[in-house]
Amino acid sequence: MSFNIQILPDNISVSAEKNEILKDVLHRAGIDLEAACGGLGTCRRCDVQVIEGYCDVPAIDGRVLSCQAKITGHLKIIVPEPNGLQDIQVETEFPADDKYAANDEQLVASTDISPLSIKYHLKVPPVSRDEHTSDLERLKIQLSTQTASKKEPECSLSVLRKLPEVLWQGEGDVTVTLTRCQSPEESCRLESDGQPEWRLIQIDPGNTMARYYGIACDVGTTSVTLNLLDLGTGRLLGSASSYNGQIVCGADVISRIIYARKPENLKELTDRITETINRLLNALLTLFKVNLLDVTSAVFSGNTSMIHLLLGIDPKHIREDPYVPVVKFPPRMKAGALGINIHPKASVICTPGVGSYVGGDISSGLLYSIHKRQPGGLELYIDIGTNGELVIIGDEWMMGCACSAGPAFEGVGIGCGMRAADGAIQKIVIEDNGTRFSYNVIGGGKPRGICGSGLIDLVSCFYSLGFIGKDGRFDKETIRDSNNQKLAARLTNNENRWSFTVAEADETDDNKAIYITEQEIRNILRAKAAIFSGCSLLLKKVGLGLSDIQAVTISGGFGQSLDIEKAIALGLFPDIEPDRFEYIGNASLSGAMLTLLSEKHRIHIGRIARSMTYVDLSSELDYMDEYTAALFIPHTDLSLFPSLSP
Questions:
Q1: How far apart are CA 623 and CA 153, in angstroms?
Q2: How many domains, the chain?
Q3: Is residue 100 part of a domain?
């Protein structure tokens, strides 16, 4: 039996079967609601308002959780306004003086350009009647005059079918595209003989050397960013980013692994990330008028779980015994097999991972960091994303771990949180005992939410002014005694749920107030405790302390606007001189670009992944003690923060 579901305010009608989950019905109608808990019904972010009809669960204040409600009859509902999950942000200008720009000219200048694919413009001589050489043989003979490889390239069937028409009609004037057949692991093995294998995947009439493109993509748990590059010059043409479409199935990797237990859900997760990648790709190809067949290589960088889901591999044993991934060094693949809308025979590689929770995004970030920095001294590398990975780098060793920081710093799980994109409040200043309250918005317009750097600013300011205690709870009396009635009015209590209004409704883009709750502040403290305790434990394992750190390199989506002193005051980072910290942007994406552009870097990233010692914090007996001690501002052991002493 089927029922009619009417969805407002878009006035969409869709048919649904009895006992079908309402959230699945909405998805079929093209409406995705965030479900940070992975459909367990605990985050309560997918609720809808019931106007008419009933589900199998009772409505509370007229609302039901769409991930829990089953269809039992005709239904009319109101869904929330769009949440920005489908928004795409495109960048095409990268100023030379922007030290965070991914197209760092020095980076490209110091890179031996040897992409995954290569093009040659050939003049194939005509055949005489006395010769018995085939078209393919003549093509390969001419190709051998321009390549150093002694190995003949394989030829795809699609090229063979086009060969006679292109070769004869163009009088031998053609351009061919070849792709490397090696993954980073295979590149390491081939380093000694220097003879990579190639495959001929495209032949075009005339000179098409100017049409030569590749993509590098950072597949983050929360956000996905894709870069389009000119492979002839190594130049970055454009960058597009958006939320990962999987976010409606769970905010973090654990919730998505749980969601993927059913085969149909695993396929949904794979389809969602593929769809996200293709939307970003289409935005850039359309903008730059690039034919998808001219995009002939791709590199994807992501944590271990995200790469498994991209490839359609069940990741369940990452969180279940024996707690290992299916693969750490994925083989080279063809784009068509993955559903990526570029040349179907294009070479696709994923950057190699280290362990279950330290993936290819960290190998990629370290590749970029090592390539960029001057070596020397003990370095702490921090990727502040959903997982919160840390790596201690010594002169000849590396040790890494993941801290399960959660997605709070990327705005997920925070009612008014968002990623660092246009409309996000990225800086907050509260001064003079609260009489001066101001914020800065990315893009300069009206705010839509708060990103990670803004959240850190806000909580740190709260603590410095005494508005919250060490445990993150509001000190209502201090706020009310601040001699600032406007500030005191920002603190409200709704059904014993205390919150502080950051921006009033008339200040925002959607006329909805932006606020932070006491519970959300506790979530931020849990995230910062995970980072700090992971750092502390790694150092103890090698007999070192926080004071031994010579440099801290920060990667991640929101670090550009991060106030280091406020982050230290919160207890997120070790208490060392702020000038020892350096933010290097989205290092995972920059490392993916290097991997795309250079065989030398493909060899190097394989070495990085193989040489790192992986530490599983869940098996460390001291970790929970370290974590619990770091749950307060800045820490229960104040001797670790000497610069904050009164």
A1: 52
A2: 5
A3: no
∠ CA 36-42-48, rounded to 5°: 80
Q: Are 552 and 582 in contact (CB under 8 A)?
A: yes
According to the model, what pLDDT value does residue 112 have?
84
CA angle 248, 250, 620 (to 5 degrees): 160
Query: Are 402 and 530 found together in one domain?
Result: yes
Tens-place pLDDT, residues 456-479 = 999 999 999 889 999 999 988 887
Full-model pTM: 0.86
* Residue recorded with tokens 């207890």: 571
Going by C-alpha positions, the residue among 242, 246, 217, 219 that lies closest to residue 87 is 242
Nearest C-alpha neighbor of 282 from the set 346, 340, 222 = 340
Beta bridge partners of 553: 381, 582
Among 498, 518, 538, the domain boundary falls at 518
> Among 205, 229, 264, which residue terminates a domain?
205
Q: Which two tokens stand for residue 2?
A: 């089927």
Segments of the chain scoring below 50 in pLDDT: 97, 99-102
User: Which residues, including other chains, have CB under 8 Å from residue 404's CB and lie 6 or more apart?
Assistant: 252, 254, 357, 387, 388, 530, 617
Quick one: 539 and 601 in the same domain? yes
CA nearest to 531, candidates 459, 634, 610: 634
Residue 56's pLDDT is 84
pLDDT at 168 (0 to 100): 85
Using CB atoms within 10 Å of the CB of residue 70, give its burial: 0 to 12 exposed, 13 to 18 middle, 19+ buried: middle
Domain that holds residue 190: 111-205
- Structure confidence at residue 110 (pLDDT): 67
Using DSSP, state whether 28 is helix, strand or coil. helix
Q: Could you say which DSSP state residue 474 is in?
A: B
Of 248, 268, 252, the closest CA to residue 260 belongs to: 268
Identify whether the C-beta of residue 392 lies closer than 8 Å to the C-beta of residue 539.
yes
572 touches 564 (CB < 8 A): no
pLDDT for position 100: 45
Whole-number pLDDT of residue 181: 77
Instruction: Identify residue 244 by its one-letter amino acid code.
Output: N
Question: Looking at the domain assignment, is residue 327 inside a domain?
Answer: yes
Instruction: Establish whether the linkage from the previous residue to 322 is cis, with ω within 30° of 0.
Output: yes
The CA distance from 148 to 271, in Å, is 40
